[in-house]
Amino acid sequence: MIGAWRFEKVIGAWRFEKVIGAWRFEKVIGAWRFKKMIGAWRFEKVRGAWRFEKVIGAWRFEKMIGAWRFEKVIGAWRFEKIIGAWRFEKLIGAWRFEKMIGAWRFEKVRGAWRFEKVIGAWRFEKMIGAWRFEKVIGAWRFEKVIGAWRFEKMIGAWRFEKMIGAWRFEKVIGAWRFEKLIGAWRFEKVIGAWRFEKVIGAWRFEKVIGAWRFEKVIGAWRFEKVRGAWRFEKVIGAWRFEKMIGAWRFEKVIGAWRFEKVIGAWRFEKVIGAWRFEKVIGAWRFEKVIGAWRFEKVIGAWRFEKVIGAWRFEKMIGAWRFEKVIGAWRFEKVIGAWRFEKMIGAWRFEKMIGAWRFEKVIGAWRFEKVIGAWRFEKVIGAWRPLFDFFL
Question: Got the DSSP string for 267-320?
Fold first, then answer.
């Protein structure tokens, strides 16, 4: 910042900005951008094309990339022209007229009728008593609510629904769906397959499109069949048994211990004080949180973790942090202002000294400095400016 000027360089191109009076000058990647507010006018030039905007009374004029955009709000009318096509809109009483890109859209909300035309297709909607008529893209949609019945037709198929007492009848695309909430039973049929469910009691039967899904909740047992495979689950005291697709899953919570077996392998977990023990697929995982420390696998400063066949080592000793990810070491150290890091065989250095920040990424230095209003940065051998658009 020197006086009214603000200079910045972005990837080899300067960005200049100056605010003098009503003018704001800016140049980004070789093209000037001028902006000025004088009275009602706003001038702006972006990539060689002027953008004018003015608000005088009800009119708003704007020109963007060679095409004018006019907009006016006078009484009920709103005129607008976008890229050579007019858009008219008017609200008079119940009518709303609008023209968008050469096609009229009429809408009227007066009495029970609502007419609308969108790109050549009419959409009618009417509410007369219990009836609601609607036509969408050439197909009528009728809906009526008389007493407990609700009739609806959508794209050639009727949908009936009725609420009588505890019963709810519904037909969707040729298949009935019954539901009853009397006592405990809830009956429902969806697309030719029955779905039985009993909520107050024990049984819950359900069938979904050809494959039965049975579920029973009696006492502690819960049975469920999904696509030909049974899923059993039982909760007795601290134990929770579950079998899914031929493999048992056992889980038990006794005191601090949580035992679980998933697909033939046991998973043990225990939380005692700050310690958390866990065994997953035959390998133990120890974790301890005491103050700022997190120990895992080995008590001390080391943290070992294996992810899909590759070890991940991490160690915090003083300022050093070592980590190995998928066969490559990652070292990181913070001493004073320096931060060293090596990732996938390449060092990354970073230092903050006063206003300077030095960083090396993949063999190329990145310098950045913030002094007053200045910010300098160099990335991979080229100077880079920052797009700070204060628009």
Answer: EEEEEETTEEEEEETTEEEEEEEETTEEEEBBSSSEEEEEETTEEEEEEEETTE
